[in-house]
């Protein structure tokens, strides 16, 4: 998505079905990124949930499909990255991996955790899956994932629980 003017449809046009794959997971990621980019309450609620404390972001970037490099300099592609500065001047950096119909890949989780760890103590990895099995696989892939694996249902609940929510979050 263009940072100057987030447009969900432009982001979705890049995805198309191919043999053995559907764009469902990418569509869900792009829709979630759009909400986080355009709705301060949603972004702060999600960051608070993942970071485990109330936060307010004052500067931020949200990207999808950003290429990173693992410890062997091999390209990897976390589904989303949100980074910036919180209201106390504290930096934050959150990578997230999203699953819908595919299995959780413990090796992938470990690679993403290594990238996050290399960025510093302010960097985290979250996993969001559609099933309890995916969540369980993510949590058991590495001790650092304890409490950092969520269901899409948890994302929905986090956004739905906002009081005085903007129209975008009215379901």
Strand order within the widest beta sheet: 1-4-5-6-7
| Bulk shape | globular
Question: Quick one: biggest sheet?
Answer: 5 strands, mixed
Helix count, DSSP H or I runs of 4 or more residues: 6
The level-1 CATH class = Alpha Beta
N-C termini distance: 24 Å
Q: Which topology does CATH recognise?
A: Trna Endonuclease, Chain: A, domain 1
For the record, the count of structural domains works out to 1
Multimeric state of these chains? single chain
The assigned CATH architecture is 3-Layer(aba) Sandwich
Note the beta-strand portion: 15-25%
Protein described:
With 171 residues, the protein is of the alpha/beta class. The protein has a single domain, classed as Trna Endonuclease, Chain: A, domain 1, CATH 3.40.1350. The protein has 6 helices and 7 strands; from the N terminus they run αααβββββαβαβα. Strand 6, helix 5 and strand 7 form a beta-alpha-beta unit.
């Amino acid at each position: 998505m263009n940072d100057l003017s987030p447009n969900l449809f432009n982001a979705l046009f890049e995805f198309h079905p191919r043999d053995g794959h559907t764009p469902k997971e990418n569509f869900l990621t792009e829709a979630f990124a759009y909400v986080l980019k355009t709705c301060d309450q949603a972004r702060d609620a999600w960051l608070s949930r993942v970071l485990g404390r109330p936060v307010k972001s004052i500067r931020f970037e949200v990207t999808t499909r950003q290429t990173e490099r693992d410890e062997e300099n091999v390209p990897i592609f976390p589904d989303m990255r949100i980074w910036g500065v919180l209201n106390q001047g504290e930096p934050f950096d959150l990578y997230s991996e999203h699953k819908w119909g595919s299995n959780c890949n413990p090796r992938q989780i470990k690679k993403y955790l290594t990238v996050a760890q290399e960025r510093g103590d302010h960097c985290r990895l979250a996993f969001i899956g559609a099933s309890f099995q995916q969540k369980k696989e993510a949590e058991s892939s590495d001790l650092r994932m304890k409490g950092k694996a969520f269901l899409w249902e948890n994302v929905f609940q986090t956004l739905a629980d906002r009081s005085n929510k903007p129209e975008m979050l009215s379901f």
